[in-house]
Amino acid sequence: MVKSFGSALTALGLVGALAACSTPGANGTHSASIFGDKVDTSNIGIATRAQAALEKGDTAVAVDLAERAVANSPRDAGFRGLLGNAYFAGGRFASAEAAYKDSLSLLPNQPQLILKLALVSIAQGKSGEALAQLDAARDYLDPSDYGLALALAGQPNQAANVLESAARAVGADSRARQNLALAYALQGEWDAARTVAAQDVPADQLDGRIQQWMTFAKPAHAYDQVAALTGVTPAAADPGQPVRLALSPQDSRQAAAEPVAVPVAEPEPVLVAEAPAPAPLPVEYAAAPLPEPTPILAAAAEAAPAPIIEAPKAQPKRVKAAEAKPALSPRAASFADSRPPVRKASFPKVARGNSNSVVQLGAYASRDFVGVAWDKLAKKYPALRGYSPATARFGSAKGLVYRLSVQGFASDDDARDFCEALQGAGASCFVRTIAGDAPVRIASL
Question: Could you tell me if residue 14 is left (phi over 0), alpha (psi between -120 and 50 degrees) or otherwise beta?
Answer without folding.
Answer: left
